[in-house]
């Protein structure tokens, strides 16, 4: 019996594209046994063919999209270009031609995933995107399949390796933010423009994708509250450690009785929480379901081969589906339309560090402002005296975000408050 060959077009040959190509070449002899068909990359779309002439055979390289979309022999289009356009246009065209698509594009899926999945369903095509979240860590497939029997109520994760590396260095080596960012840049963990990472945008896109799948409601990046790590200091790290906590940039999605919460921000978590031990550039996603209870997925969140591993896994799934004529069997799962809460309508605990005039009555006045806004104090510490001012650390019990921010606004107008140095949300502090 003649062996089936699934022909692939690769859109892009950057870090991830190179990893995908390498893994397919490595696994060439194994594929027929693993998926019942051979895989062959027949076209690679790039901007500059000369740049890749020493890596890719000339007959496979093209800088013309029509060479891909016009080739009816191509079964699977793999998009690893990144960005919204022209990736969105290319994927739509491929699906409309009945070609299956695998993408690693978190920006695109976070904004237009619902639209593209609906289009894939209309044409009975696969659109798989495991690599769009957490690189080599399997999380999309577990949410769609392995954990489908659960009512998932919460997803919480470290889903950006750059910021996790920076915060690890600040905690372990006492570095300030700028110093740790420079080290991350020197080692290649941070881009020349690190804004998407350090401001939480990258994590926000990934969280939107996971929340959409877990809660069966379309969640886009615009729905996600994002706050970055640029205001975190070595002093905050030290005080967190004294309270038995770590500070991590977390993506947190909750399905509550009043709506979906989706937010990315620095968070204090107790040292005994599994996510507190996730350091350097590693990622982890913590899922709570009513049947499975807690499950955590951990590993490399980025890089050519880890991300390429997820892409190739999707390609293999498509090829298997083709063999058994069952493509498009798992499409868009957003069959609900749950409300998505604004950040002001959420609740949290808060760590606040500020400088007050070091005189009688200031602590009582501060406590009064919190009380007026329904924010009860769980921990109150006077840390040190700075230029005749007292540095105060407060951790609140759970309070509505609107109420807490009203208190902060009041503090900002009070003469006795010399500086509000830091505000960090707190996930939990043991039994306090």
Could you give the topology of this structure?
Layout: E1 5-11, H1 15-26, H2 31-35, E2 38-45, E3 61-62, H3 66-69, E4 76-79, H4 87-96, E5 100-103, H5 106-122, E6 127-128, H6 140-146, E7 152-158, H7 161-173, H8 177-186, H9 195-198, H10 201-215, E8 225-226, H11 234-242, E9 245-256, E10 259-270, E11 282-289, E12 293-300, H12 304-323, E13 347-357, H13 362-372, E14 377-386, E15 389-396, E16 399-400, H14 401-412, E17 417-426
Parallel strand pairs: 1-2, 1-4, 2-3, 4-5, 5-6, 8-10, 10-17
Antiparallel strand pairs: 7-9, 7-11, 9-10, 11-12, 13-15, 13-16, 13-17, 14-15
Helix pairs in contact: 1-12, 4-5, 5-10, 7-8, 13-14
Cofactor: a metal cation
Active site: 206
Organism: Anaerotignum faecicola
How many discrete structural domains? Answer: 3
What gyration radius follows from the Cα positions, in whole Å?
A: 24 Å
SS summary, helix count: 14
CATH evolutionary superfamily of the largest domain: Dihydrodipicolinate Reductase, domain 2
Global morphology: elongated
Structural key phrases:
ACT-like_dom_sf, 14 helices, single chain, Rossmann fold, 34% helix, alpha/beta, NADP binding, eleven-stranded mixed β-sheet, EC 1.1.1.3, Alpha-Beta Plaits, ACT_dom, six-stranded parallel β-sheet, Dihydrodipicolinate Reductase, domain 2, 432 residues, 3 domains
């Amino acid at each position: 019996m003649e062996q089936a060959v699934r022909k692939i077009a690769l859109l892009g040959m950057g870090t991830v594209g190179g990893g995908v190509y390498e893994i397919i070449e490595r696994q060439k002899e194994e594929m027929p046994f693993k998926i019942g068909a051979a895989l062959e990359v027949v076209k690679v779309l790039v901007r500059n063919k000369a740049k890749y002439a020493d890596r890719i055979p000339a007959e496979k390289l093209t800088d013309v999209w029509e060479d891909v979309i016009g080739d009816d022999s191509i079964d699977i289009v793999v998009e690893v270009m990144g960005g919204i356009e022209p990736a969105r246009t290319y994927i739509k065209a491929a699906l409309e031609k009945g070609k299956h698509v695998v993408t690693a594009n978190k920006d695109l899926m976070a904004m237009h995933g619902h639209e593209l999945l609906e289009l894939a369903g209309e044409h009975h095509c696969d659109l798989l995107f495991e690599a769009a979240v957490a690189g080599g860590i399997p999380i999309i497939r577990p949410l769609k399949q392995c954990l489908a029997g659960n009512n998932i109520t919460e997803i919480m994760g470290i889903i950006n390796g750059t910021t996790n590396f920076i915060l690890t260095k600040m905690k372990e080596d006492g570095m300030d933010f700028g110093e740790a960012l420079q080290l991350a840049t020197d080692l290649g963990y941070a881009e020349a423009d690190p804004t998407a990472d350090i401001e939480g945008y990258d994590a926000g896109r990934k969280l939107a994708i996971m929340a959409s799948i877990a809660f069966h409601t379309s969640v886009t990046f615009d729905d996600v509250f994002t706050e970055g790590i640029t205001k975190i200091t070595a002093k905050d790290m030290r005080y967190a450690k004294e309270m038995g906590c770590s500070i991590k940039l977390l993506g947190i999605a909750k399905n509550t009785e009043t709506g979906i919460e989706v937010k990315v921000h620095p968070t204090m978590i107790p040292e005994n929480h599994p996510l507190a031990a996730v350091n350097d550039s590693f990622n982890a996603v913590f899922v709570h379901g009513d049947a499975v209870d807690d499950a955590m997925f951990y590993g490399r969140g980025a890089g050519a081969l880890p991300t390429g591993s997820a892409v190739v896994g999707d390609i293999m799934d498509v090829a298997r589906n083709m063999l058994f004529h069952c493509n498009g069997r798992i499409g868009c799962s957003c069959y609900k339309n749950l409300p998505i809460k604004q950040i002001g309508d959420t609740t949290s605990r808060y760590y606040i560090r500020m400088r007050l005039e070091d005189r009688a009555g200031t602590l009582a006045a501060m406590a009064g402002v919190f009380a007026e806004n329904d924010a009860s104090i769980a921990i109150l510490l006077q840390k040190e005296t700075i230029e005749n001012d007292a540095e105060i650390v407060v951790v609140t019990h759970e309070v509505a975000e609107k109420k807490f921010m009203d208190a902060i606004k009041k503090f900002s107008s009070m003469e006795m408050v010399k500086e509000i140095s830091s505000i960090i949300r707190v996930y939990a502090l043991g039994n306090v």
